[in-house]
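[Automated response] Your request has been received and processed.

Submitted sequence:
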Amino acid sequence: MRIKVCCISSPEEARIAIEAGAHALGLVSAMPSGPGPIDEVLIGQIASAVPPGVDTFLLTCKTDAASIIDQLRRTRCRTIQLVDEVEPGTHEAIRRELPNVRIVQVIHVQDHGAIEESQAVQDEVDAILLDSGRPKAAIKELGGTGRTHDWEISARLRDAVRVPVYLAGGLNPSNAAEAIRAVQPFGLDLCSGVRSNGRLDPVKLRSFFDAVRACA
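Generated structure:
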């Protein structure tokens, strides 16, 4: 089970997550709402110090290829996490310009339409990440909501696509095992559920990993 710890805000938080066993770190660039955004200079500093074997995800709300490619070149992250619907041709352009960067498309699970959305994009990406945002809200919610969504839909979606599926949205130590049993995802993505007062909580993080290992 791959575990991505998102909303990393400092080199110290990166160290805590890696020592706990994280397979990937999420580094959040500017967003319309939600926790975790940090300056791109800091994203680049953290990403450059992450050891081999631990992936670095750049989260972006940008929707055009040129802006996303520029961000990736500035921050040097290994994976791009697209948290909103992007313009036609964007995935192809990223792949062409940066062939070594992995592409993860976020699908916000609001109803069964998420299954069709995922099927439509699966051939363009390396993985799909299911979250609980509200991209059509007046102020977009594109992650970090602390809410779960309907895992029955997520399980059906996982069976309907050919690429790996990450599960995000309201995950914490108390529901990690239930989420794994219900969805059987490739990986889990967590943020607010392992934080206290906005800071990464080593105790909660260890509890989360213990719950995942016990389930396995």
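Summary generated for your ticket: The CA atoms of residues 12 and 46 lie 9 Å apart. The domain at 2-171+185-196 is CATH 3.20.20.70 (TIM Barrel).
If you did not submit this request, please reply to this message.
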